[in-house]
Amino acid sequence: xxxxxxxxxxxxxxxxxxxxxxxYQQKTFNPSISSLIIWRGNEKEGETGIMLKxxxxxxxxxETGGVEEIREDExxxxxADKPILSRKDCDSCIKLKNALCTIFCLRDALIQKxx
Length: 115
Ligand code: SF4
Ligand code: SF4
Known about the structure:
alpha+beta, 3 helices
């Protein structure tokens, strides 16, 4: 089984992964349907990083380092507003030899691993 590792501290915010994921999901270039969101909140408060939607959870990999996996039903009211909760679950591009977002992330902020 394949999993996607998120390393927020390596992300430069180019958003190529969002485009790649939307192409995988629906053969279109539309970041708003991606299973990934490159999060740019209050940068002074450290609200930047990578969000990845998984079944019943989402991963939050901070640009400052550290990764949280948050269950949808435990998301705070503030987090419940985040569009990541309505995105399609990442299936690790199971139909492809390699996960598309990991190919297009030239910073290795997204990597695939077998688990
Ligand atoms: S492609 Fe990589 S570096 Fe670019 S926004 Fe996505 S995770 Fe960050
Ligand atoms: S592994 Fe595939 S489905 Fe998951 S975020 Fe990357 S491109 Fe999207």
